[in-house]
């Protein structure tokens, strides 16, 4: 069970320094994070959308310790939106945001995060697109859902993420499906205790299917966040059973993972959205990608051996 170990390392300053200093790290990180600046990422956006893919853009970074840093995160997203405007992509390029970047963990963090994220949601709406609130660890979710509900009063297209491994998620999914929300369902990528989350992969997979059925049968817009071929196939079948057309749900996968599958689904007429992260504070995001899938860790380990 290397996943929990890697997730613990994602919060270690010592491991951050060690991994960041390794000569092989940057080429491997580039597989998952194709740029550090807006100038670097705009050509990637053009390339992917020219291939018939859609995107959700994430400016990486989570460890915010001051209100000024939270405002800088807000401004980074506003800069991205400004650069997206002339591309006229509409909802083909949306944003994903982590409320921790907007100050959620600081004193008065709920109000601070809402105040910082609202201008991003407003600016996204002005260029014809939207924002999805990413889920983080379970202690942050009540605040995230409350902010989601508040934003939807003026911007009903605002989405949110739910995580199949949490016990609470089936109830959350029923509520969100009834309200007509845009919902991305993922397995979950944070180290959570057994008191709140399933620990075994087969239990998480079964919960994922139950929750996805709820979303497909509900009034909202399901977003299937998975690279698992079996869950992708099940998602297609659940959509057919629920009578959903191809534009009434979508698949989402990470940049750099199963890229051929991205193109295959898009070629079949599915909406296929690529979660594309960029920025300089990549360490936590990168370590969670290693923890999620053993193949990613093996890829990194082989690179360390061959290049170290």
Automatic annotation (TrEMBL):
Residue ranges of domain Proline dehydrogenase in the record: 45-301
Pfam families: Pro_dh (PF01619)
Entries under SUPFAM superfamilies matching the protein: FAD-linked oxidoreductase (SSF51730)
Cofactors demanded by this protein: FAD
Pathway: Amino-acid degradation; L-proline degradation into L-glutamate; L-glutamate from L-proline: step 1/2
Keyword Nucleotide-binding: yes
Keyword Flavoprotein found: yes
EC assignment: 1.5.5.2
UniProt enzyme class: oxidoreductase
Catalyzed chemical reaction(s): L-proline + a quinone = (S)-1-pyrroline-5-carboxylate + a quinol + H(+)
Keyword terms, alphabetized: FAD, Flavoprotein, Nucleotide-binding, Oxidoreductase, Proline metabolism
Protein name, UniProt field: proline dehydrogenase
Taxonomic source organism: Streptomyces salinarius
